[in-house]
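Reminder to self: keep the SMILES exactly as supplied, no canonicalising. Ligand is NAI.
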Amino acid sequence: MRPYVFVNVAMSADGKLSTRERRQVKISGSIDFRRVDQIKAGSDAIMVGIGTVLADDPSLTVKDPELKAGRAARGEDENPIRVVVDSRGRTPIEAAILNKGSGQRIVAVAGEADEKNRELLREKADVITTGTESVDLPALLDALHARGVRRLMVEGGGTLIWSLIKEDLVDEIQTFIGNMVIGGKDAPTLADGEGFLAAQDFVGLDLADVLRMEEGILLTWKVRHQQRSIL
Ligand SMILES: NC(=O)C1=CN([C@@H]2O[C@H](COP(=O)(O)OP(=O)(O)OC[C@H]3O[C@@H](n4cnc5c(N)ncnc54)[C@H](O)[C@@H]3O)[C@@H](O)[C@H]2O)C=CC1
Ligand SMILES: Nc1nc(O)c(N)c(N[C@@H]2O[C@H](COP(=O)(O)O)[C@@H](O)[C@H]2O)n1
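Structure tokens returned for the bound complex:
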């Protein structure tokens, strides 16, 4: 069993998540920032790949005091469980995600991760080992479900999102599309990785909502599953 998995990203009009140097870009404005904070507060866990941690050093905390208070009133920590998908255990021990704000952290590593890295990370996070060379995502989602995670937000980046989509593990995709062109064939996009080759493999989406927001649009897509595996 796995949680309901939804992806949320901001992309430029040409579909880029950041520059080709992986520099973080302010794509959306304050209204979208508030929306993202709300959906984060409504999630049991929030997940990113190690590429995002190394590029952006995000804290992924809930920012609004009222939203934090709402979580506390429901008996939850102020912040959802923060999860890093990090095969080799490269998350810096000083990373904001491990140090800012309260709440549980999980670093998901693969079997080949250096034992010293694992030991160090255990001081700040629960370390879950799945897979051999890279993290086994279905097994990780199963482990998160067993820990009570029912709603999982994925913030990126493109490599992790591609793997989740390829393995049919995503239920919903929310994209804010902002009013700029970033360009660059090597700039990260929503789904990087190797990509599908044949039309029968493409992942079908149903458009659930379109909303004009500030100078961009927010699209909500529901993923058409090959086979449903959530309960
Ligand atoms: N605009 C936005 O909303 C967001 C933009 N970003 C941008 O995305 C970029 C980072 O994206 P990426 O470099 O693609 O890194 P990523 O954040 O997708 O992490 C990918 C890494 O995760 C690890 N991993 C372990 N097991 C894996 C598995 N089974 N499948 C896939 N990955 C696995 C690998 O080391 C892999 O290189 C940054 O430039 C960041 O600014 C990131 C989040 C949101
Ligand atoms: N939703 C959204 N809109 C933008 O305009 C963005 N630049 C991003 N970027 C990602 O959000 C994360 C920031 O997290 P914290 O504020 O540190 O909690 C970071 O990973 C950016 O890549 N997202």
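Points to follow up:
Residues 176 and 218 are 4 Å apart (CA to CA).
Residues 10, 24-28, 36, 52, 56, 58-61, 155-156 surround LIKH6CAM (ligand 2) (CB under 6 Å).
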